[in-house]
Design a protein that fits this description.
14 helices, oxidoreductase, oxidoreductase activity, flavoprotein, EC 1.14.13.-, FAD/NAD(P)-binding domain, 17% strand, eight-stranded mixed β-sheet, FAD-bind_Monooxygenase_sf, globular, five-stranded parallel β-sheet
């Protein structure tokens, strides 16, 4: 058994960011549990050809760890993985990490006022595991549990008749099988989301032919961006202020981009025109162009960035099937339009279980209710971070903590700051979220989201939970608005301690104010 003040589950951006925030707040009694063989989360697991970030690299990192050596405007996946490993090394967090350690379950012990976390080591639960031998099982006893498990961790495998009997190489984009040589093969790709637009141009270079199954076309805008020269990187090293200024400019650009993504009519129309011009410029065939044109509002689904996808699809090396994959009959793929396609290998670029987080089944709070049961009608949390019925529990990168216009790392850092402020005012007491506070916050989110393109744009997206019909993943505002909202949390979101005369006295902070009409939240 291991006894700590704080147990963090996950060592991607969220888990590392939380560990850094705890250390800066003077809290050293913590452990980070990671099921993989290395840190990195998404950027460890996703190793498909062409994997890269679609957020500018100098904004996609921790504020305390600017990286002057990024190779270009958009960092490659392996670079981001190496960056996170570097941050762990510089921060001296290695001795707090338990790699190849999977959370089997976590249960709130009301009598002991602690979380009891069952773990298994050396289980090879992640594609990043190198098969190392673990040290066995352990129970972590912690005052506080932080779930930093990520939202894009468990691939979604579509239910398609005959899929399991496909005779050739078959794998999800997030579990790329590098032992499968796709050179000269007829490769099928299912999906046209963020991963597919990076994968298809790479497969075009090696496959005999690529057949792409598109259920819904995406809005795609030019990616642009250049490689940084040696001189650029030398300048960033010699003059950190230039790097700071670049990050500030990128932050401002991201905040300005919120308008076009959320549904501001003028901003959305301008962005849509850019996307349509990009499509027309790169796809000459009117019929193909029509098949690639979305029939829903710009911003309703995730807007993608690519300069290579349209040319690849327009080439003779790729065939676009404007419909879903309906069935698999041996090596023959049958599309929803009835067409049949002979394939040697199949890649599923079909996304992740985003609104139904797998870890939720493993976590039991008061009265034995699991987080999955609490979220059976859709994910909710006060401040996108704390959940009623789950004392001393914090969730990073969970309900309404993602962005459609800027870097999710910015949100993680704000959440980690909120957690440390709450812990500073805890004074050893149990933090129980007021259910009314969670409901009111969720209602604020719903009201702010009601008129956005994510809710009204005429598409089905992974931001909205089909069980509740509510926006569950995205924060419906800017990063500035999120920072301001968390700053207004004064502790009254927690039920008073038994000996407290008045609610709201337990935690220091600014006076809490209601959301202003017309504000993001």
């Amino acid at each position: 058994m291991t006894r700590v003040e704080v147990a963090i589950v996950g060592a991607g951006f969220a888990g590392i960011g939380m560990a850094m925030a705890l250390r800066r707040a003077g809290r050293e009694d913590f452990v980070v549990l990671e099921r993989g063989a290395s840190v990195g989360g998404t950027w460890r697991d996703n190793t498909y050809p062409g994997v890269a970030c679609d957020v500018p690299s100098h904004l996609y990192g921790f504020a305390a760890h600017p990286n002057p050596t990024w190779s270009g405007t958009y960092a490659k996946g392996a670079e981001i993985h190496s960056y996170l490993e570097h941050v762990v090394e510089v921060e001296g967090l290695s001795d707090r990490l338990r790699l190849r350690t999977t959370m089997r379950d976590a249960e709130w012990d009301a009598g002991g006022r602690v979380w009891r976390i069952g773990t298994s080591s050396g289980t090879g639960a992640s594609s990043g595991d190198d098969g190392g031998v673990g040290v066995g099982d352990d129970v972590i006893v912690a005052d506080v549990l932080v779930l930093a498990c990520g939202r894009l961790t468990e691939p979604t495998i579509p239910r398609i008749a005959g899929l399991e009997q496909f005779p050739g190489p078959l794998f999800h984009s997030a579990r790329w099988d590098h032992s499968a040589d796709l050179t000269g093969l007829r490769v099928g790709v299912v999906g046209t989301g963020a991963s597919a637009v990076q994968i298809v141009p790479e497969l075009k270079r090696v496959a005999a032919h690529v057949t792409l199954f598109q259920r819904t076309p995406a809005w795609i805008v030019p990616r642009g961006g250049d490689a940084y020269s040696d001189a650029d990187r030398a300048r960033f090293v010699a003059d950190p202020s230039s790097l700071e200024a670049l990050r500030a400019d990128l932050y401002a650009e991201g905040e300005a981009r919120f308008a076009s993504r959320s549904g501001d009519s003028a901003a959305a129309a301008e962005a849509e025109a850019v996307a349509l011009a990009h499509l027309e410029r790169q796809v000459a065939d009117p019929a193909l162009r029509a098949a690639l044109t979305p029939d829903y509002a710009f911003g309703c689904k995730r807007v993608l960035l690519s300069d290579e996808f349209y040319p690849a699809v327009a080439s003779d090396a790729v065939s676009l099937v404007p419909g879903a994959l309906a069935a698999v009959e041996g090596s023959t793929l049958v599309a929803s339009d009835g067409t049949r396609h002979e394939i040697d290998a199949l890649v599923l670029a079909t996304g992740f279980a985003s609104t139904r987080q797998p870890y939720a089944d493993l976590v039991a709070g008061e009265d034995g209710q699991t987080l999955a049961e609490h979220w059976s009608g859709g994910m909710t949390a006060f401040a996108s971070t704390v959940v009623a019925g789950f004392p001393n529990l914090f969730v990073l990168n969970g309900p309404n903590a993602s962005l459609g216009h800027s870097s999710s790392v910015l949100m993680i850092e704000e959440q980690a700051g909120y957690v440390t402020r709450v812990l500073d005012g805890r004074s050893g007491r149990v933090l129980r979220v007021d259910p009314d506070a969670e409901r009111q916050y969720s209602d604020e989110i719903a009201q702010a989201a009601a008129s956005t393109r994510w809710m009204t744009g005429g598409c089905r997206n992974w931001y909205v939970d089909e069980r509740s019909g509510r926006l569950a993943l995205l924060w419906p505002g800017t990063v500035d608005a999120f920072r301001e909202r968390l700053a207004r949390a004064d502790g009254s979101e927690f039920l008073p301690a038994p000996d407290a005369a008045h609610r709201g006295r337990e935690l220091p902070g600014p006076d809490r104010e209601p959301a202003l009409e017309g504000s993001p939240v």
